[in-house]
């Protein structure tokens, strides 16, 4: 986005009463859609979004991934390897081990230099110790927070919202906080349902259909059995935070709290 276009978008965002970040992401689009619905009536076409999440929940996902903007700029501007079975990760939790080369190019082209994209292609699909070993080959690449946010809100979240809806039929009927936290879960763990390590992921499916918030939260907490707390304490904290938000999800929200993803 050019400098003048970014300024215009920020001016529009101020008029909409939202954070003027210059990113045309789900928050801005949701506010524009809400105004159009109020003026023209709700669109009769099939929605092009998958979930209606709480803004607080989406912000929580970002905090899970990067802690804060200051922490990102200090520690995460360059590719990293989070450990476990992760791949080389860039931006806001964008794991190159779980994306195809074509998907990575589509999401990131125009946000970082083409030369950096070509270099990152060399670590695409690598996971675990293979990714750890390959990290040095791309460690010099820098991913500005603005580029990371652009990809996160415009490409990553919508893609994972669609995956979440497919993995958990009926999720779109749950409270907005619960939708956001199941999106967080799928963003972090993917959609695979088979195998002993996926027992809780599978068990959540009927609980979503039954709208059993406490049952879903219990299964999310139970996943902590998979990770050594001394090595991956962050995942324990994340599952607890997701479960708490699901258990305490409200049935009603102010429209300004909701984001269509």
**Count of folded domains:** 2
Strand order of the largest sheet: 1-4
Assembly state of the chains shown:
single chain
Helix content: 55-70%
Largest sheet: 2 strands, antiparallel
Which terms summarize this structure?
single chain, 261 residues, mainly alpha, Lysozyme, 2 domains, two-stranded antiparallel ribbon, two-stranded antiparallel sheet, 55% helix
Mind explaining what this structure looks like?
This protein is mostly helical. The protein folds into two domains: 49-67 and 147-260, Lysozyme (Orthogonal Bundle); 78-143, no CATH class. Helix content is 55%, strand content 4%. It contains twelve helices and four strands. The chain has helices at 3-16, 26-40, 55-66, 69-76, 101-108, 114-120, 128-134, 145-167, 176-189, 199-209, 213-222, 233-247; strands spanning 52-54, 89-90, 94-95, 258-260. Helix 9 (176-189) runs antiparallel to helix 12 (233-247) and helix 11 packs antiparallel against helix 12 (233-247).
Which secondary structure elements does this structure contain, and how are they paired or packed?
Blueprint: H1 3-16, H2 26-40, E1 52-54, H3 55-66, H4 69-76, E2 89-90, E3 94-95, H5 101-108, H6 114-120, H7 128-134, H8 145-167, H9 176-189, H10 199-209, H11 213-222, H12 233-247, E4 258-260
Antiparallel strand pairs: 1-4, 2-3
Helix pairs in contact: 3-9, 8-9, 9-12, 10-11, 11-12
